[in-house]
Each structure stands twice: as C-alpha cells, then as structure tokens.
C-alpha cells in the first residue's frame, strides 16, 4: 500500500510541477559525486559564470548573445537547506581558499532570462528558465541497492568486501570484533555502538588520500547529514548464524535498524529528491584514484557503476518501487583537469569514457543521452614550458596551498611555482595495470593549488572565474533548454 501511495503522491507532484512549469519553465539539475569530487566548486563556478557573464564560448546561448540576465531567486523547496553560494564565492574569490565541501543535500534556484528563438519557448516561457540546482553526496546514491537486500544479504556482501586484500587491513579491528561479539545474546546499546563505530572507522579509513578507495554503503555512515548518532545509523553487518534470532538479541536489533535505515532514510531520499530530477551531472576524481593505483581505479569503477545504476529508469523503478521522472541527459565529468597540461586533457577524457563504458556495459539508458567530459570548474593553474636538457617540458604553474610539499620543498601559500605534472597514459586501459611493488603505474605529480586570482574590471567588479570546458558541460546540461 505504501508503494501505491508513494506513486500517487509522486504522480501528483509531477503533475503539479508540470503545471507550474508551464507558467514558469524549470529544470532540476542534480549535481553529485563522491566526497571531494568537486560538487561545491562546480556549482559555485557555474552560477558565478552565469551571473557575471563569464567567458563561455562553447555555451551557445552566451555565444550567440541571447542570454539577457541571470539572477538568484528563492528556491521552491522550503524544507531543504539552501546551497551557501554567497559564502562559497566569498571563500573562492575574496579569500582565495577552496570552499567548504558538500556534507548533505542543498539546493538553490537561478533564473535566466533569454531571447527565445524557438516559437514554443516564446509562446510559453517568454524566454525565462528557472534552474533548480540540487547538490547531494554521491555516497547517498550508493544506498540504492540496499533497497533490494535484506539484512543477511547486506551483511554477507559487506563482510565479503571488507575481506578483499586491499581493504582487509583497514577492516581488521572491525572483523576481529565481529568474531568475538555474541550477536545472538541479548542486545546492548553499547555493543551496537561499538560495532557501528568500528565499521564506520573502517569505511572512513578506505577514503584516506593515499588509498582513495571509493565508498561502500550505507552512505550516511560517512555523510550522516543531520542523522549523526541516531539509532538508524547505529548498526553494522554481522556474521551469519543458523536459525532465526531471538527478538531481544543484538542480531534482531541490528536487523531492525537496518530496515529502519532503509525506510526512514534511503527511500525518502530517493522519493523526495531523486525522482524529481530532469538532468544529472556525476563528478569523479579520476586522477586521485589513478595516483592511488589500479585497485583504487577498479574501486572507483565499481562506485561509478553504482551511481549510474540510479539513473537507469527500469532499474531504478524496480529497486525503489518508485516512479520517477525521466532524466534525459546524464553527464559524467572528471574534474580538476587544471592539474595536468592541456596535452593530456584528451587522454583524461578517454579515461573517463573508458570508466563509463565499463560501468555501463550492461546498462541501457532508454533514450537518455550520456556524455563524458574532462574539465576544471575553476582553473587554478596556467600553462607554460621549461627547457630541460634541450627539451621543452610542458609545465603548469600556480600557487601551491601553504604546507603542500614536493620532495623536501614546503610551500608558503604565496609563491607561484611551476611543476611538471607528468603525462597521462595514451591508452586508457593502462589505468587498470598494476605498477611495480604496488606503486601506481601512472602517477601524476599532484599539488593542491590555491584558487586563482580573479580579474577585476576598472571599477573593481569581479569578472567570472576561469575554468576549463565548464562551458561544454553547461551546453550539454542547459543549452538546449535556452533556445
Ligand atoms: P565536494 O565534496 O564534491 O563538494 O568537493 P569540493 O567541490 O569541495 O572540492 C574538493 C576539493 O577539490 C576542493 O577543496 C579543491 O581543492 C579541489 N577542487 C575541486 N574542483 C576543482 C577544480 O576545478 N580545480 C582545482 N584545481 N581543484 C578543484
């Protein structure tokens, strides 16, 4: 019954949205990716470029001079936190530090007035489009498969993954405690908390920089949003046992909490947010995974497969039992391309395509257009060449963040420095090859740079933030709705 009621509500919502949309056309754009993939920076840069008439030669509406005016408006959903655009811009532009990353869902509305060329748009929209941007952690999406799994299946798979060679060491304290805990005895809150903490610590350790493993569900264990410490997050997988658990056992309690997590956290998230999206961008940090080695790349691929699953219509409906609006464009983009020389940008793009092809091998996206891209939402570097032993080496330069190091040199956050980042492999398959002694086969010299100084006009107004191919992303995601 709940399923039917859900569907009816969503159908009513969709109709209401459509009716509202006739008077005022809207586009709901989802922005996701695992933590630190660049969501906050992407949204801030996109909005800043639209508001300040950025250099966007590949964004048709801008190129053809049809964009008239872009402005912020109150978002339509009062219960969702607003994306803190103003704070993020102040950090990037005034202080030249990277803004605070996404920790939960947030939303903002940007409205664009444009000269409508198409008859339909002139007639119905008067040349106005409201863009609702929804920012949310990719970790939460990876919970989708849980909806189709009971506690036993979840436990079995989570423990299997924890025992994989690359994870086993990190999972050791958790796995060891699982062996000793008496899950069929009467439950105690402290046992539940202890296991949940050990399990969360293990998931968190997997994300540490040098390992860069993508995450595993449950997504809220790493990105709890406002649920931190609640019983729905205080559970963990358990080793199997024979027979059915006693009602007051730890096993029964963990099972109940797992089900509560699904019904109170996962389903509402999909129902209230994901079903209403029109378009989606998924950001990935491919270079970080490559720097951590082939195992991390395989892991990223697994996460990407999971993320993309959520946008396959048939699959989504089957798993959630929810009826969703159709996402008609899906963009998978590698961010931070300003860390490599432009000669390697095509290679990075080939790598993203390779990851996506593998991830979507069995998937069909029923008419949804899927595209891939390498970009930098904010370009923190410039390019140049230096002569070394008679060869011209392509380098990038920028201001490394205070405390960054290369070799034994530590930077102070002020001086501009040129580095040779290294090349990406010409054959995208090479990212899956293992280096010697567990070293990554294709490391990139990766230094974190400060955000760039933004040019200002004569009267001191800030011009837009520099980027690489952000305009291509915008053309794919928005261009056709501004004709
Ligand atoms: P989120 O967790 O997905 O919201 O990630 P953020 O947008 O906060 O980005 C995480 C970090 O990646 C930032 O603090 C920056 O250091 C870096 N970053 C993100 N986007 C870019 C980019 O376009 N260029 C550069 N150079 N760094 C970026």
UniProtKB/TrEMBL annotation:
Designated name of the protein: Amino acid regulated cytosolic protein
Boundaries of the shown chain within the full protein: 140 to 622 of 622
């Amino acid at each position: 019954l709940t399923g039917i009621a859900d569907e009816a509500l969503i159908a009513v919502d969709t109709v209401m949205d459509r009716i509202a949309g006739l008077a005022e056309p809207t586009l709901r754009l989802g922005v996701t990716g695992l933590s630190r993939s660049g969501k906050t920076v992407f949204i801030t840069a996109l909005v800043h470029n639209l508001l300040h008439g950025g250099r966007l030669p590949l964004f048709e509406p801008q190129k053809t001079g049809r964009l008239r005016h872009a402005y912020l408006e109150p978002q339509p959903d009062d219960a969702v936190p607003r994306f803190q655009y103003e704070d993020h811009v102040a950090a990037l532009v005034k202080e030249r530090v990277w803004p605070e990353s996404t920790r939960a869902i947030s939303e903002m509305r940007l409205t664009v007035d444009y000269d409508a060329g198409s008859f339909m748009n002139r007639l119905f929209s008067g040349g106005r489009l409201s863009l609702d941007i929804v920012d949310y952690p990719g970790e939460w999406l990876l919970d989708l498969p849980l909806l189709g799994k009971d506690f036993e299946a979840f436990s079995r798979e989570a423990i299997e993954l924890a025992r994989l060679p690359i994870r086993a060491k990190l999972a050791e304290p958790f796995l060891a405690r699982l062996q000793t805990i008496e899950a069929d005895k009467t439950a105690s809150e402290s046992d539940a908390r202890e296991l949940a903490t050990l399990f969360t610590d293990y998931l968190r350790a997997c994300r540490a920089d040098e390992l860069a493993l993508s995450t595993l569900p449950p997504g809220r264990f790493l990105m709890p949003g406002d649920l931190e410490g609640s019983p729905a997050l205080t559970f963990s997988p358990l080793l199997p046992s024979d027979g059915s658990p006693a009602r007051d056992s730890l096993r029964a309690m963990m099972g109940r909490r797992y089900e509560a997590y699904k019904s109170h956290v996962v389903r509402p998230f999909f129902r209230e947010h994901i079903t209403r999206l029109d378009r989606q961008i998924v950001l990935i940090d491919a270079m970080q995974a490559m720097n951590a080695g082939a195992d991390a790349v395989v892991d990223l691929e697994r996460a990407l497969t999971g993320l993309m699953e959520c946008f396959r219509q048939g699959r989504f409906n089957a798993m959630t039992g929810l009826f969703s609006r159709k996402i008609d464009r899906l963009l998978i983009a590698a961010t931070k391309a300003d860390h490599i020389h432009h000669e390697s940008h095509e290679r990075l793009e080939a790598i993203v395509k390779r990851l996506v092809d593998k991830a979507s091998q069995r998937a069909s996206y029923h008419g949804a257009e899927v595209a891939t891209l390498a970009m930098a939402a904010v370009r923190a570097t410039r390019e140049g060449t230096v002569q070394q032993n008679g060869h011209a080496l392509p380098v990038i330069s920028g201001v490394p963040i205070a405390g960054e190091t290369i070799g034994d040199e530590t930077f102070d956050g002020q001086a501009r420095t040129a580095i040779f980042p290294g090349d990406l492999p010409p054959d995208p398959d090479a990212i899956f090859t293992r280096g010697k002694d567990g070293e990554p086969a294709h490391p990139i010299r990766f230094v974190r740079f400060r955000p760039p100084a933004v040019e200002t006009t004569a009267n001191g107004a800030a011009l837009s933030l520099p980027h690489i191919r952000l305009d291509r992303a915008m053309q794919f995601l928005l261009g056709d709705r501004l004709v």
